[in-house]
From TrEMBL:
Entries under Pfam families matching the protein: Peptidase_M17, Peptidase_M17_N_1
Native organism taxonomy: Bacteria, Pseudomonadati, Pseudomonadota, Alphaproteobacteria, Rhodobacterales
SUPFAM superfamilies, per database record: Zn-dependent exopeptidases (SSF53187)
Keywords attached to this entry: Aminopeptidase, Hydrolase, Manganese, Protease
Family stated for the protein in its record: Belongs to the peptidase M17 family.
Domain Cytosol aminopeptidase: 308-315
Protein name: Leucyl aminopeptidase family protein
GO molecular function: manganese ion binding; metalloaminopeptidase activity
Residue ranges of the TM segments: none
Length: 459
């Protein structure tokens, strides 16, 4: 179903959102038959629980949605989405007294409850529709829902149908929709145009490696987004075990999240000069695959010793970041499913980010709380710089020892973003188990917080 609000003139039934602490007071103002119905059903306004209210003819006349306690709500987000999934089809008008930001979050969650990835198997999300409540920016919320659906669809699609060529096509379709320009450098042309590490990582695949370069907007500050587009990661010659390879269709989750953010920026017509760079490759195994021990010379001229071919994402990002930095944008952001160390540090639900800009970090953290898109600042810890300096080359793509893996990866990337205001997001892009508004599978992380913070950091 479309992830949109129902028309305002819909014949909607009332949906009353009630916190557990408010249920007794609400019941005191209801007719005896409603009190008897609610009490007889054992409804306690527990978080996510729904109770239909009968009309005189026996048909539903409305419904109650439990909002639990404040302590319960702190342990999750998108609580109204659980009610959307539990309600029967039809149109509903929300009755709730919530702060504007919370109301917007709950409305977005409702729309996202309608998402289902049905490309290969018939399935559907929640069918209940919501009339946009007074006080919310309905168009913005619908834009966020559609952008999230794009992210999820891209991440959920297996590499058999989303290799570098198909990822390029997705970018081209997005560019055509919003009037952006797109340029793609493929195969041997990567060497001619000095993107040697993108070529090295992707050359063993049947699909040629490529760098996708999309531009939109003619005024305002310059924002460059760089997304890791490794459409599948075998680990290369340092091959992953099968248990680790099973989710590697999602290794282009950075590219997907960057495209979701770009779509939102363009749809909302923000006053920005937007550039999107996506190195799209498969890290495959063949006779011409790059090898452990190889030393690659990057676009920036820095040499990199390959101590693990499974640390390939930072290599393709490095060339793209160096290219993006050449135009000195006002802000450059990379997003990548880069390290398992980030998951060990903060788990699957939080997007750790790195930035030297305290003002950006503060704005992002505030926006994170405002739009229910959790992020956490990590340090560009300079005492760890020697860990990425192997001696035989300028840089090491996989420092030994296993310590601070996400930090050392971020330090590696920062070497190639030199001189510009740069932030890096080490995301997971995957929901391990279903939660309200977030079915198991691909998911957006961090980009809604970035979107909300941009007006504060790009003035």
């Amino acid at each position: 179903m479309p992830l949109t609000f129902a028309p305002a003139d819909s014949d909607a039934l009332p949906l009353t959102l009630i916190a557990s602490d408010d249920l007794t007071g609400w019941l005191e103002g209801q007719p005896p038959q409603i009190r008897a119905w609610v009490e007889g059903a054992g409804f306690t306004a527990a978080l996510g629980k729904v109770l239909l209210l009968p009309g005189a003819d026996g048909a539903p006349a409305g419904a109650l949605a439990g909002y639990g306690t404040a302590a319960q709500r702190k342990r999750g987000r998108f609580h109204l989405a659980a009610a959307a999934a539990a309600l029967p089809g039809g149109t509903w008008a929300l009755q709730a007294e919530l702060p504007t930001d919370t109301l917007a979050e709950e409305c977005l969650g409702w729309l996202l409850a309608g998402y289902a990835f049905g490309r290969y198997h018939s399935r559907a999300g929640a069918s209940a529709r919501l009339v946009a409540p007074q006080g919310v920016d309905a168009a913005r919320i619908e834009t966020l829902a559609a952008s999230e659906a794009l992210v999820r669809d891209l991440v959920n699609t297996p590499t058999s149908d989303l290799g570098p060529q198909e990822l390029e096509q997705a970018c081209a379709e997005l560019a055509a929709t919003y009037g952006a320009s797109i340029e793609v450098t493929r195969g041997a042309d990567l060497l001619d145009r000095n993107f040697p590490m993108i070529h090295a990582v992707g050359r063993a695949s049947d699909q040629a490696p490529r760098l996708i370069d999309m531009r939109w907007g003619s005024s305002g500050p310059a924002l460059t987004l760089v997304g890791k587009g490794v459409c599948f990661d075998t680990g290369g010659l340092d091959i992953k075990p099968s248990a680790s390879m099973g989710l590697m269709k999602k290794d282009m989750g950075g590219a997907a999240n960057v495209l979701g953010l770009a779509r939102a920026i363009m749809a909302l017509n923000l006053d920005l000069r937007l550039r999107v760079l996506i190195p799209a490759v498969e890290n495959s195994i063949a006779g011409n695959a790059f090898r452990p021990g190889d030393i690659l010379t990057s676009r920036k001229g820095l040499t990199v010793e390959i101590n693990n071919t499974d640390a390939e994402g930072r290599l393709v990002l490095a060339d793209a970041l160096a290219y993006g930095a050449e135009e000195s944008p006002d802000l450059m952001i990379s997003m990548a499913t880069l390290t398992g160390a980030a998951r060990v540090a903060v788990g699957p639900d939080i997007a750790p980010f790195y930035s030297d800009d305290d003002a950006f970090a503060a704005a992002l953290s505030a926006s994170s709380a405002k739009v229910a898109d959790p992020v956490w600042r990590m340090p560009f810890w300079e005492p760890y710089e020697p860990m990425i300096e192997p001696g035989i080359a300028d840089l090491d793509n996989a420092p030994k020892g296993g310590f601070a893996g996400s930090i050392t990866a971020a330090l590696f990337l920062r070497r190639f973003a030199g001189g510009v205001n740069y932030a890096h997001f080490d995301i997971y892009a995957w929901q391990p188990s279903s939660a309200p508004a977030r079915p198991a599978g691909g998911v957006g992380q961090g980009y809604r917080a970035i979107l909300d913070a941009l007006p504060q950091v790009l003035k």
